[in-house]
Design a protein that fits this description.
The complex is a heterodimer of chains A (about 290) and B (about 250). Chain A has about 290 residues and is mainly α. In chain A, helix 1 crosses helix 11 and helix 2 packs parallel to helix 4. In chain B, strands 6-7-8-3-9-10 form a six-stranded mixed sheet, sandwiched between helices. In chain B, strand 7, helix 6 and strand 8 form a beta-alpha-beta unit. In chain B, helix 3 packs across helix 4 and helix 3 runs parallel beside helix 5. Classes of the chains: A mainly alpha (about 290), B alpha/beta (about 250). Chains A and B meet through helix 8 and helix 9 of A and helix 2, strand 6, helix 3 and helix 5 of B.
Chain lengths: ~290, ~250
């Protein structure tokens, strides 16, 4: 049994942390701890207050600072050796934090009274949902540099992240639009009859209800997207699945592939489970609070 | 102090002049003219589909009329968002399905518009809202959510929510039609108290006891037209028009 898991004892740390310098791995432990705390806190309804919103901005920003270094007395580590679980968590979290507001804006845009806004957001959503994510990743990694001057270089990780956030925002826009469409006309009537204009009606009345109704579908989208971050492997970034594959094809560990993939699956499962469990708890909490 | 019915009312407050509205091909309002004085209590009744609700909704611009004018305190209510939002602050509306905001507590339902529209501070709005919630006798439920209240309580909360904007006119669109019978009375009582305080009211309702007791005038509508406008005693005891008689006999049955 112990021999069966020998690969994890030997290579487990590489799978989790990627090619990051071994003597700096404690920084990754801090980063993973921060992300794990953020996800767990988000799954606890009592933590749902303004501070959590700030945490969703501060934790990814802090993670980047810690991993990148070059300040606060931390040695600089270039992004091409970032990998493993921290990279997966970073892409996913930055994706959620950027795509949710963008998706909400797009959803509102698709229902706007202004035809131009409606058209632009409609085209954006339809276009990005129609293109396979892998295609966009290739475009971001291979084609994008061809279109900018040679002296302009944008980090590959940043380009991949942008592709993820753009696509996710289109999916979220559709989920939120569905939530908005489910708001009864009476809610708009009541808000209008009180003299509430467009923005107070949206942010005070309709959007909160729409987002709440969308939580199961949003979390479903997030869980799917969390796993889709593994697609960055195709452009040469070593996320959690990428490092696992690197070990699994190592001739020395060739027969340990099942253990390796099982190990990675357990990690993915833990994070996805926290998300779906949190979604259910949140729904139950709202139900208990607001119904008899 | 209850103001005696039929006493001299204030000045002209709301004028509806030759109002016409279409939904697609159907001509739902075919020229409605009605002048309402300050403090007047008007009950509008008529068979379903007669345009009663549309008339109310045209007054505060929830529905659009294509011809005619609505004049509030001497100024026409136009359909541009600014004019509408201003007018709506002076016209309260209560709906058949009460339409409380389910994600907010009763108190938050009442404070939302005063804070967002009138820019009141939270504490000011709170004091104001609790005052009105006390008047409709549900102050003890201020921190509950709408889903935890009975229909009658929710409708009274909706009345308080409308009153928090300090409207000069209140529109009631079948406020008791969706209520269980045992809850109708508490809402009717609240409306009667409001009438006694001198609020200008236009009520679409089939509560004929309320009409008899409270209304200054009863308006009978059918097929988008006003058929008859009478004081309640004349309306109920000696209806002039054949259609009014038919409607009243159907209600009595």
């Amino acid at each position: 049994m112990i021999a069966w898991f020998a690969v994890l004892a030997e290579r487990g740390r590489f799978i989790v942390s990627g090619p990051y310098p071994a003597d700096q791995r404690w920084r990754l432990a801090v980063v993973v701890g921060l992300f794990a705390a953020l996800y767990v806190a988000s799954a606890i309804p009592a933590c749902w207050r303004r501070g959590l919103l700030a945490a969703w901005l501060l934790v990814p920003a802090g993670a980047v600072v810690i991993m990148r270094g070059g300040m606060l007395g931390l040695a600089a580590v270039p992004t091409d050796v970032w990998g493993g679980l921290p990279l997966t968590l970073l892409i996913a979290t930055v994706g959620f934090a950027t795509a949710l507001p963008a998706g909400v804006a797009l959803a509102l845009g698709r229902r706007s009274r202004l035809p131009v806004v409606r058209l632009v957001s409609g085209c954006y959503v339809e276009l990005l949902r129609a293109v396979p994510l892998v295609t966009l990743l290739f475009m971001a990694s291979v084609m994008f540099p061809l279109f900018v001057p040679a002296n302009v270089t944008i980090d590959k990780l940043v380009r991949a992240q942008a592709a993820f956030s753009l696509v996710l925002s289109a999916y979220i826009a559709e989920v939120v639009r569905g939530g908005l469409a489910g708001i009864p006309a009476g809610q708009y009537d009541a808000a209008a009859s009180l003299g509430l204009g467009y923005w107070p009606t949206t942010f005070g009345v309709t959007l909160p209800q729409a987002l709440r109704a969308s939580v199961p579908a949003l979390v479903n989208t997030f869980v799917g997207f969390f796993k889709d971050t593994s697609l960055v492997a195709v452009i040469g970034l070593f996320d959690l699945l990428g490092t696992a594959r690197a070990v699994a094809v190592d001739p020395h560990w060739l027969r340990s592939a099942p253990q390796i993939y099982l190990f990675v699956a357990v990690i993915y499962f833990l994070f996805c489970y926290v998300m779906s469990h949190g979604s259910r708890r949140l729904e139950a909490w709202w139900r208990d609070r607001e119904a008899q | 102090m209850a103001r005696p019915r039929g006493a001299v009312k204030g000045l002209l407050q709301l004028e509806i002049q030759d109002l016409q509205a279409w939904y697609g091909d159907s001509h739902v309002l075919r020229g409605i003219t009605l002048a309402v004085r300050r403090g007047e209590r008007i009950v509008i009744c008529g068979p379903s589909g007669s345009g009663k609700s549309t008339l109310l909704r045209c007054i505060n611009g929830l529905a659009r009329h294509q011809r005619g004018r609505v004049v509030l305190d001497g100024a026409e209510i136009r359909h541009d968002p600014r004019s509408l939002d201003r007018a709506r602050q002076r016209i309260g509306m209560v709906f058949q399905q009460w339409n409380l905001f389910p994600h907010l507590t009763i108190l938050e339902n009442c404070t939302l518009a005063p804070m967002r529209v009138k820019k009141m501070s939270r504490s000011e709005a709170r004091v104001l809202a609790l005052g009105y919630l006390t008047r409709v006798r549900i102050a003890e439920y201020a921190d509950r959510y709408p889903g935890q209240l009975s229909g009658g309580q929710q409708q009274r909360a909706a009345i308080a929510r409308a009153l928090c904007m300090g409207p000069g006119v209140m529109l009631f669109d079948e406020p008791t039609s969706a209520l269980d019978p045992e809850m109708v009375q508490e809402v009717v009582l609240t409306m009667s108290e409001l009438a006694n305080d001198g609020m200008t009211m236009l009520c679409v309702t089939h509560e004929m006891a309320f009409a008899r007791r409270v209304a200054d005038r009863v308006v009978f509508m059918d097929e988008g037209r006003i058929i008859e406008v009478e004081r309640p005693d004349a309306f109920f005891d000696a209806p002039k028009h054949e259609r009014t008689r038919a409607f009243l006999s159907r209600l009595a049955r």
